Amino acid sequence: YQVCQTLKANPHYQGIPVIFISAADQLFNKVQAFQAGAVDYITKPFHLEEVLIRVENQLNQKRLYRELEKQNILLKAEITERRKAEEALTQANHRLEELAAKDGLTGLANRRHLDRYLTLQWRSALLNRQSLALILIDVDFFKAYNDAYGHLLGDDCLKQVATILQSMSRKQSDLVARYGGEEFVVVLPNTTVEEAKQLAQRIQTAIAEQKIPHRQSKVASHITLSMGLTSLVPEETKTAATLIQTADLALYQAKTRGRNRIICH
Q: What is the pLDDT of residue 156?
């Protein structure tokens, strides 16, 4: 019993199967042997064939155990590799989703993402009875800018405007998107007309401070913006398109009244 206990207490030897062969055939002796760590117990007198079979049985079990260990190691490695592949795939899909939601030139949200986000915010504002504001922005005389400076500088101009718009966002829920061409949109959840107007004025000031040259402009020697904005509490009878249409009407009025101005509707 002591020898068996000593073997089982040593990490180097504890995996070795131990079979007892003893003349003591009482139940107490067998229980004590198994408690000490034995895997089998043979009483005397014994038959050699029986002993060899039981030894072979333990060896077979040991071989199977080692084979299972190997398989388990391989399986764990396979699972690890599969998890890595799944993580890489998830990251790739996430990256693709990000790219699919962004405008290729400015890095802002694109029209597809804008439509989806505006619909979500409309539903949220409708549910919570909160105001939802939107600013529609147009770069004044941008076609003339492209004609005068070329499309490469035109692209740089749009990037600068996009950077300024993005930097003026007040909170995480605000969304700045490229609406198309030289038009941009700022979606402002839970925002009143007055708050939206204050933001539009800050944007206008920031653009003016940049003094991006525009010798073909009819209102200034630098890039200016026309903006139409609106804010409303959504109703069941209307849709998110109402917000765009109302802001677009205000933008049209800003253009017809001389550009480089903000019109609230």
A: 96
| Token reading at 146 | 């492209």
Query: Does the predicted TM-score (pTM) go above 0.70?
Result: no
Beta carbons of 179 and 136 less than 8 angstroms apart? yes
Do the Cβ atoms of 134 and 188 come closer than 8 Å?
yes
Q: What secondary structure letter does DSSP report for 106?
A: T
Query: Can you tell me the distance from the alpha carbon of 210 to that of 198, in angstroms, rounded to the nearest whole number?
Result: 19
Catalytic residue numbers read 182
Secondary element (H or E) of residue 72: helix 48-100
- Do 203 and 168 form a contact (C-beta atoms < 8 A)? yes
The whole-angstrom separation of Cα 54 and Cα 245 is 88
CA distances from 169 to 162, 176, 238 (A): 11, 8, 27
Three-state secondary-structure class, residue 56: helix
Q: What angle do CA 187, 190, 194 make, to 5 degrees?
A: 85
Asked if residue 213 has a cis previous peptide bond (ω within 30° of 0), the answer is no
Average pLDDT over residues 167-190: 93
